[in-house]
Amino acid sequence: MTPVGAVATIGRLCRITRVTWLSELLEPGRMVSTAIQVGSQVFLTACLWTALYAHTEVSAGLQEHQAVGYAVLAVLASRLRPLSRDMAPDSFYRHMREGTILYWFLRPLPPHRYHLVRALGDQAHGLLWVLAGYGLCTTAGVVPLPDGRWTLPAFLVSMFLGQVIVYQLSLILDLLCFWTVANSNALHVSHFVQSLLSGAFAPLWFFPGWFTTANSFLPFQSTLHIPLSIYVGRIPVNRVPREVAVQAVWCLLLWLITRTLWKRAESRVAVQGG
Fold first, then answer.
1. Which of 1, 35, 43, 111 has its CA 20 to 30 A from that of 78?
2. Cα–Cα distance measured from residue 37 to residue 44, given in angstroms and rounded to the nearest whole number
3. Cα–Cα distances in Å, from 186 out to 68, 123, 190?
4. Phi and psi at residue 217, in whole multiples of 5°?
5. Is residue 74 in some structural domain?
6. 130 Cβ partners below 8 Å, 6+ apart?
7. d(CA 240, CA 150)
């Protein structure tokens, strides 16, 4: 690719990533409602977990500041998930219902790359909310700063791998539209299951042993529970390489699955003849 072509490609990718940002700016009411929603969730979550520790200092191996910090970070991390575009004209579900998914395969940009770039734009937008909320929460003392020299870098690496897994899981649901056409019900179920099994509702340390054992064979706890447990110190730094290796294996396995699904999906699209 020539330098001019490379610059043009980068420009197209940048325009795709800013679609979410522009749609938010055109509807400032959505930004205000999001700020109110996140603020109220953080406040109520902090109040709930503080009240739960009113008569105890340690529960399930977590102290109050660890449990509160974990729960608040889980609320903020939920903004990193790909934003819902059910009502947007470029949602996978809508394209499948209207048959316009065909145009994804006619563009110079491959459909899998377009899907990835759009997701990156969504998550970059969500990252701004996370950073703003994290700054306010640490300043207010709601979320403790990480202890240890290597805790924050280990958390960031684990969180990045967790978000890769989140993207791949959501991509699998989208690709199922090629066989089911509609995936709205699957999305609702998936959001609940993922929130429960990833530790977004409560740290998995509070769940029964049989539950955590069964969940360890699934990728969900690698999306959120492992990174946040590293941050609050529930997982020591010397165990981080093992946990990160497990996350990397899940990234590889899910990548192989999504790659196979993309290839099979392409074979189901008829560009000529309807």
1. 111
2. 11
3. 31, 21, 6
4. -90, 5
5. yes
6. 76, 77, 79, 80
7. 10
Element (H, E) at 16: helix 3-17
Instruction: Look at the chain and report how many structural domains it folds into.
Output: 1
Place of tokens 């699957």: 186
Residues 114, 119, 122, 124, CA torsion sign: negative
Is residue 274 included in any domain, yes or no?
no
In a domain, 273, yes or no: no
**pLDDT tens series, the chain, 274 aa:** 555 455 456 666 666 666 666 666 677 777 788 889 889 999 999 999 999 998 888 888 889 999 999 999 999 998 886 544 444 556 677 777 777 777 777 777 788 888 888 888 888 888 888 999 999 999 999 999 998 889 999 999 999 999 999 999 989 988 887 877 666 677 777 888 889 999 999 899 899 999 999 999 999 999 999 999 999 999 998 999 999 999 999 999 999 999 999 888 877 665 544 4
Residue 120: is it exposed, middle or buried by C-beta count within 10 angstroms (0-12/13-18/19+)? middle
Domain that holds residue 18: 3-267
Write the DSSP assignment of 33-59 as a string of letters: HHHHHHHHHHHHHHHHHHHHTTT-SEE
Looking at this protein, which amino acid is placed at residue 174? D
Does 272 map to a domain? Answer: no
